[in-house]
Specification:
Low-confidence stretches: none
Number of domains: 1
Number of helices: 7
Strand content: under 5%
Oligomer: single chain
Mean pLDDT: 83
Distance between the termini: 68 Å
Length: 167
Amino acid sequence: MMDLQTFANLSEIIAAVAVLVTLVYLAVQVKQAKEQIALGGRQARADAAREVLASVSETEYLAPIFAKLDDFPWGDFGLESQEDTARFAAWCHAWMRTEEHNFRALPAEERPSQDQLLLMWLSTSWGASFWEQVRAIYDADFAAYLNGLQRRLRADPRSTMGLFKER
């Protein structure tokens, strides 16, 4: 049988271990909460960008104004007018911001289907041109990911329609 002092010492050790386990648990919870807040912030930024860009691509008022701005390079997509180019480029940016969010939000095992969409995008002349011109404005981790997909496509070139047929 244990004497009272031994029991007290054992109780202190158990309490110390319980406190340590609780602190580790709380640290993990705080880290996960911070990651969720950061993800929410990135999502809010993507949503705001899409909303602003939609005003250029979807309304009749802003695209003509942006088309007149010579110092804002929308890209060269072979479209008939600079206004069409401004609308299309704004739409491309909105779509790419959505893809940037999906890159973070999707678990790794769900990315292959998303990769097919991005590979399809990069396999088009306009998608590749767009990415070459704007990659620097996207977050570095997403840009590195897309650059890796682009290298994969260059190593094994396929047509856009060929990519649609793959799975």
